[in-house]
Amino acid sequence: MKKFFVSTRLPKALGNSSSDIEDQLKILDKIVREISVIDPIFAHWYVNNYDETAPKAPLVYTIPSDKGYKYLFDLKSGDEFESFSLWNGIEENIDYTSIDLSNIGLLVKFQKVLSADQIVQIFEVILKYLKVEYLYINYKFFKDINVFEHRLPTTSICYVSLNVAADYLPHLYKKVDVDNQYNKGTILVFDENWASEANELKKKVQENSIALIELGAIPEATIPDSFFE
Fold first, then answer.
1. How many CA atoms lie within 13 A of 84 on its CB side?
2. Would you tell me how many other CB atoms lie within 10 Å of the CB of residue 100?
């Protein structure tokens, strides 16, 4: 079964102070609430405090809830390397999904093939609340066809933090301009069938990748030292 990841590259690491943690929990709360209506797999969330010694799946702390957020705040306050880890309470199958927000970025994992419009909606929610340099829907296929190994994969739906003209890319199904207090750029959809793995999709992704890298829109794969400053 395919595993998809909405992945982020942030411009800098998130902070670890008490106020930083509170701000990040507010961001998480807004994102969770707004993506809950995009697809039923996002409707319910729990803190994923998995313990291999526990007899049951972790369903104690629901999100959003004061109890759940206090647990996450205390966890992060005690260890700056901890992440806010959530899941939807469904064991690994087509309806499973999870969210992780850490110092280095946000990751949404799922296995259901959502529509291109649903992916765009998820992107719009994330970009509404979190400053992002690059946002992409990733999985093994895109890693395997990546033209430039030293760059993050170009994927069939991605957000780049610059304005891209509709006629610039060789292949474009849809573009959505983003302009808010945190982000100014473009969501790009190369093909409606974004996860088809067809040779036609491979061609579109690779040719668009070359064009985007010429613009400097795809970040280096390695996180720069300045990211943590």
1. 32
2. 16
Beta sheet of 134-138, edge-to-edge order: 62-63, 45-47, 84-87, 97-102, 105-110, 4-9, 134-138, 157-160, 184-189, 174-179
Tell me how many helices (H) and strands (E) the chain has: 5, 10
DSSP secondary-structure letter at 200? H
Give the pLDDT confidence of 133-182 residue by residue, as tens digits: 999 999 999 999 999 999 999 999 999 999 999 999 999 999 999 999 99
Whether pTM > 0.70 for this model: the answer is yes
Proportion of the chain in helix, strand, coil states, percent, rounded to 5: 30, 20, 45
pLDDT range class, residue 59, cuts 50, 70, 90: confident
As beta bridge partners, residue 159 has 135, 187
pLDDT tier for residue 51 given thresholds of 50, 70 and 90: low
Q: Are 176 and 158 in contact (CB under 8 A)?
A: no
Long-range CB contacts for residues 173-180, cutoff 8 Å, separation at least 24: 173/116, 174/116, 174/120, 176/120, 176/123, 176/124, 178/124, 178/127, 180/127, 180/128
* C-alpha gyration radius of the chain: 18
* Alpha carbon of residue 93 to chain centroid: 20
The amino acid present at 21, given as its one-letter code, is I
